[in-house]
Amino acid sequence: MGARGVAIRAISDRADEDLPIDFNRTISSDSRISVPRVLAEVAKNPGTLRPLIRFGKQSRSAAEALARFLETYVKELVQLVAREDSLKVAAR
């Protein structure tokens, strides 16, 4: 049997929403978001500050929803594996 896996992700913005800034311009050499670069982007266009704050709140909300889902998912998965193991033992 091949490897089993599941991909789960949180979506923080709608498909019809544009990102408030070009995040490609904010990536540092170590592939992380650079706060100084984010601030520089906002300084270039101050009108992006409010949408950026809203995007941050949406991202946090999506991350929290993902965490709640994963907590429930993992608990259910553990219970399922435990039941399967119990059935295997009982069948012997």
Describe this structure in words.
By secondary structure, the chain is mostly helical. The protein has two helices and no strands. The model has no long low-confidence stretch (mean pLDDT 91).
H/E series: HH
The main pleated sheet reads as: none
Form type: elongated
Radius of gyration: 21 Å
Q: Report, as a whole number of angstroms, the end-to-end distance.
A: 23 Å
Beta-strand segment tally: 0
Helix content: 55-70%
Q: Helix/strand/pairing class, anyone?
A: mainly alpha
Q: What fraction strand?
A: under 5%
Number of helices: 2
- The mean pLDDT is 91
Strand and helix layout:
Blueprint: H1 35-44, H2 49-91
Can you give keywords for this protein?
single chain; 92 residues; mainly alpha; 2 helices
Q: In brief, what are we looking at here?
A:
The protein has about 90 residues and is mainly alpha-helical. It contains two helices and no strands.
